[in-house]
Amino acid sequence: MSAISIARVAGGASRRILVLLALLLAVLLAAPWIANDYLLTVLIVILYSAFTGQAWNIMMGFAGQLSLGHALYAGLGAYVSAVLFVDFGIGPWIGFLAAVPVAAASGAIIGFLAFRFGVAGVYFAILTIAFAEFARIGFDHLAAVDASAGLFLPVRQVAHNDVWHLRGDPTMFYYVILAATVVAFILCRLLLESRIGYFWRAIREDEEAARAAGVATFRCKMVAVMISASLTSFAGVFYAFFYNNLFPEQVFNIGRSIEMILGPVIGGIGTLFGPILGAFVLTGLAESLNTAMAAFGLDMPGAKQVFYGACLLVVIVALPQGVWPPLARRLGLSKDKP
User: Cα 218 from chain centroid?
Assistant: First the structure.
């Protein structure tokens, strides 16, 4: 293809992407007006998964650092904001500002230990799991947060939605997590096209070559870990005020970390739309499965986990790059030829 043809293809793809984004955002903004409470709750779960998937994608999809312990950062954000609210009456947004440095510092400690001493690949993933498990065990025995008995946030009836204290109906929570997902998408876009975004991709493809080319790989990876951890901490704040209860066994469980990565893996690791599409596909199909099982009166513990495993198997075998890249080519949303 000539340079002019490539430019035309790129310009056409960009316009189609903008139209798709506008349509998707319009549908999501209008959803509370037509959805019932159940469907609205499902959409909240989908957007929560999309948000956490975007945060994780910065670390793995952009910088190539596999984390299987991301529940650590969400758990820290949840507990920091919840303790400040329960014990001192400090609202969740101030709590989030306090949770960010805590989560970022935790990510920095893990990153420093790993990157300074050459812990990479599967060993880095194991290190992230270990820290999440340390936190789970520690909080499970920490009396200040009621240990394994669980920390419960006070719930009071309000005449109107209180966004400052995250107290209100599901519609308010829906728009909060929608706004957070949009901000995360924009941030990921800016990071991906920034100077450090190119450095991350160079590290992801070949770290030794990137280092030889003069990229400060240690600093770039540390930035990726800290940004990813900081974003994920907001997911924890939202989780705490949406569910109003925290149990270490649930919040820091490795299953939470796995759920965070499923969206990007299904949708397409390293892409902007992958985590969002993966969240819609995976959560939507899982809820459809639950509805079908309930309709037939079936009670099958572990069915959801089996379903997730089957989805992963199908994607790994049939669509190793995820659902989004081939779909984007089919729809003419990619700069590559279909």
Answer: 23
Q: What is the pTM of this model?
A: 0.92
Q: Name the E strands within 170-321.
A: 245-246
* pLDDT greater than 70 at residue 12: no
In angstroms, the CA 179 to CA 181 distance is 5
pLDDT of residue 303: 74
* Tokens 């190539």, residue located: 64
Q: CA–CA separation, 66 vs 121, rounded Å?
A: 7
3-state secondary structure of 66: coil
Report the SS3 class of residue 208: helix
For CA atoms 24, 282, 233, 122, give the dihedral sign: negative
CA 31 to chain centroid: 21
Angle, CA 118 vertex, CA 117 and CA 120 arms, to 5°: 135
Q: What percent of the chain has pLDDT over 90?
A: 71
Element (H, E) at 32: helix 3-34
More confident residue, 267 or 303: 267
